[in-house]
Amino acid sequence: MRQSLVVGNWKMNGSVQKNQSLLESLKQGIGSVQQAEVAVCPPFVYLQQVSELLKGTVIAWGGQNLSQQAPGAFTGEVAASMLGDFGCKYVIVGHSERRALYGESDELVAEKFAKAQSVGLIPILCVGELLEQREAGETEKVVKRQLDAVINLQGVGALAKSVIAYEPVWAIGTGKTATPAQAQDVHAFIRGRIAELDTGVAEKVQILYGGSVKGNNAAELFAMTDIDGGLIGGASLKADDFLTICQAGK
Ligand code: 13P
Q1: Which residue among 99, 135, 137, 211 sits deepest, i.e. has the most Cβ atoms within 10 Å of its Cβ?
Q2: Strand intervals (E) in 14-112
Q3: What is the pLDDT of residues 186-205, one digit of tens each?
């Protein structure tokens, strides 16, 4: 039985004051979350604040991105080891916003994944298709290509120490959630693809769903066999909504 995991991706949101009040509320309410592990991924500059507020609690934290490079002359970048310095457990790699807006290729995402693991961070690898790709029947092809980039670089065994997040791009921030059946189909496809190479890894790896998950649809999504929790954007910024989603973890 895989433990469920619910991760809040704050994206480029927050302020010192808002983070403080959000995290105080999460700390107060986290006792109501029975099953799921919970984590939050704030913008880099707030990692110090978040680590201080969450130290000693059951809530973990992580980065939203990292550099594929070792520390050095890379202005504006953040190295994996620096995330480790601030107690990060997780780091998101290959979010569709980074792929689309910052030109991150499958190969670059795979390098970032490897760099994260090299310092003991758990990468949360995001995969997912665009609306045109879904309509053209290419969902599985796209997701397989994104997944295989990591498998080709690191071997399937590397997925055992990672989390995968299926986020259909058309469902992100649009209020259009994939139906539980649509999401389950792709999650089963991902697990099946991994199982072709290593059944043990396939059985173990947590696959999260992301894309307009809210308090009122989380339970039906998380109830599906191959959905092991969620990667939550907008709803992770409100303590009540986020806690309701976390409570839906099985
Ligand atoms: P929303 O929950 O706002 O749709 O965002 C999903 C997401 O991109 C999480 O990484």
Answers
A1: 211
A2: 37-41, 60-63, 90-93
A3: 999 999 999 999 999 999 99
* Structure tokens belonging to residue 12: 């480029």
* pLDDT above 90 for 1: no
Give the list of residues 6+ apart from residue 6 with CB closer than 8 angstroms, or none: 36, 37, 38, 39, 208, 229, 230, 232, 242, 245, 246, 249
Given 95, 97, 111, 129, the catalytic residue: 95
DSSP 8-state code for residue 87: T
Domain that includes residue 187, residue range: 4-247
Distance 11 CA to ligand 1 centre (A): 9
Phi, psi (rounded to 5 degrees) for 243: -65, -40
The pLDDT confidence band at residue 175, using thresholds 50, 70 and 90, is: confident
- The CATH number for 235's domain is 3.20.20.70
* Residues making up the chain, counted from first to last: 250
Under DSSP, the state recorded for 227 is -
Average confidence (pLDDT) over 215-232: 98
Instruction: Note whether 20 and 224 are within 8 A (CB).
Output: no
Nearest-angstrom CA–CA distance, 123 and 220: 26
Under DSSP, the state recorded for 56 is T
Is ligand 1 within 6 A of the CB of residue 172? yes
Query: Do the Cβ atoms of 227 and 183 come closer than 8 Å?
Result: yes
